[in-house]
Amino acid sequence: MDSLAICLIICLYGGVLSTPINILHSRNVQHKNNKIGIIGGDSASIKQFPYQAALLSDNELFGGGIILGKKFILTSAFVIAPYTSIVVQVGSASSKTGGTLIKVEKSIVHEDFYGYSYDVALLKLAKPIKYGKTAKPIRMASKEAKNATSAVVSGYGFSSNHDLTDDNGFLTKGTQTTIDKSSCQAYYSYITLDETNSCAFNNTLCNCYSDIGNPLVQNSKLLGYFLGGNWCCNGGTPQIYSNIPAVRKWVLKHMKTEGFRSKENLRHYYKVKI
Predict the structure, then answer these.
(1) Residue 157 above 70 pLDDT?
(2) Which of 72, 86, 43, 10 is nearest to 251 (CA)?
């Protein structure tokens, strides 16, 4: 076998195509339909979810984020990958108007990010968020949620799945039930879930394409954020989230490296008001 043939085999089976095509498709479709948000949710006030952030590019919503500090937003590494210029919107119940817009100064992506594994990015803002009733940080959970317990999702999207052209951009909310990883894995033969993943389910309340990075919260603490899997209530399967306890130390390490001081959050942490 000549060197060219060996090279082709390595490139095809050890490189790009080592990730199944259906994984690439299911994740990339988000960027083609990025106006479609949460389906089946109820209207929400930003005062109920002051940690919620919207990620914008050219004034268009493409993903969600979570306020962790005055200059720090947590989100998915995958969702920010195509964008060279990102603006974060905080403090508004509409992704189209109101609130405060702040440019992202720096993006820090986990060094082990691949597929759904270690899909985490920390965004450092060019100027600090002014904390108040409509914008404040949330604590990261240090322990995983128990199986079959209720958690709250939020994001900008729709109240039904009947008209996906009705892009109202308003904040919506709903609940999903946590599901153990082994049961969740059974639904996804083409994805390998690891310690950085978690799952939750509600057959009538689902994140959709612009919701990657939107929070999953329980008892005033961030459990994870949406990554993908079942899109838009299509198929009745669990949705895949990050698992915050598995990446919490990495996030805190890089926040501190970039100048975060924990005292700035002490009086401002979000507490349940839903």
Answers:
(1) no
(2) 72
